[in-house]
Amino acid sequence: MTAVSAPLISVVMAAYNGAGLIEETIASVLAQDLPDLELIVVDDASTDDTLARLHAQTDPRIRVIASATNGGPVVARNKGFAEASGRYIVGLDQDDLCHRDRFSTQAAWLDAHPDTVLVACAVDLLEAGTIRPPRAPLQTSPMLIAWRMQFGNPLVWSSVMFRADAARQLDVFERVDRLYAEDFDFYHRIARLGTIARIDRPLVTYRIHPGGASRRFTERMDQSASAVLVEPYTALFGADAADAARLAVVHFTGGVAVPDLAALDRLGIVLGRVHDHFCATHAIAAVDQALIQQEFARMWWRMADASVRSGAVTLEEAGAACPAGLQASHPSRRRAIGSVAIGAGRALLSRWKNAVP
Fold first, then answer.
1. 287 CB-side CA count, 13 A
2. How many CA atoms lie less than 13 Å away from 171 in the CB half-sphere?
3. Are 243 and 205 in a shared domain?
4. Could you please report the per-residue DSSP string of 136-171?
5. Distance CA 57, CA 26 (A)
6. What's the CATH number where 50 sits?
7. In this structure, are residues 96 and 205 in contact, taking their beta carbons and an 8 Å threshold?
8. How much is the pTM?
9. Which of 13, 87, 140, 202 is most enclosed, with most CB atoms within 10 A?
């Protein structure tokens, strides 16, 4: 009997009530220009006809695992990873789409960069039938990715490919207690074994829709992502590590307006301390320093602008709280004028509501 060789790539997908989207996702995998792959789909006890649609697939590269009970996406992915035999593992959610050259491009990157344990890619966005270009940053480097990971998740799970042998060195593939930030937790743990990089070209189309986890479970996602950062933050903030991590995840990475000036001042201190520590513990080339400063300023002013528009702080207060080394004025004069006007109106309305008995 001839032994069947292991595929180069194993795609691991958790499926739950994905009827209507999952077949298009599977088609994008089967259409890859690098066909040396297996697709392992773990149906997490779907209550619609997802499992029937999976069983209707005829391509021999597809393996379907049907869970008897619903355990959640982390349990499902762990089951799939345990069955994977490929040298490289691809992360993919049931509703996202792979461009035809995704696998060949990422596999070539890993082949050419033996120190890289995981490579992601940029994603374009599909919402309401319209594809939009990737969000910032458009240019990255492994050092910028490492810097970004100090504040929140910079990568889309459906965009990653990683080395199976590296992932198997971890105590567990994904951790259940980091649900909805299990990917961010995984990146932190696998980064101890090598470099994380990103290809700055869209190789995946990411669907934005009301049923997506990022829309439905935002609060739990923020809680889990903050918990990931508590460990590295403890050395810098001690007993205040959890609060510092929450500020970084929700406001700096999430771009959500701060509730008041005290929170903005605290956030500025947190960001400055984490940034200074990162710079002191990494040898950063000039090109990487420029990328980091550019992204630092973009993220600060995105959050600060939202805070001004909410009426929580003034533009002058946002500039005064700006971490050292960043431009202390709004990068867009036109946007600043609009934000100040909107924020002033909202602040006035809030004071009027509070004054009404």
1. 4
2. 4
3. no
4. SPSS--HHHHHHHTTTS--S-GGG-EEEHHHHTTSS
5. 9
6. 3.90.550.10
7. yes
8. 0.92
9. 13
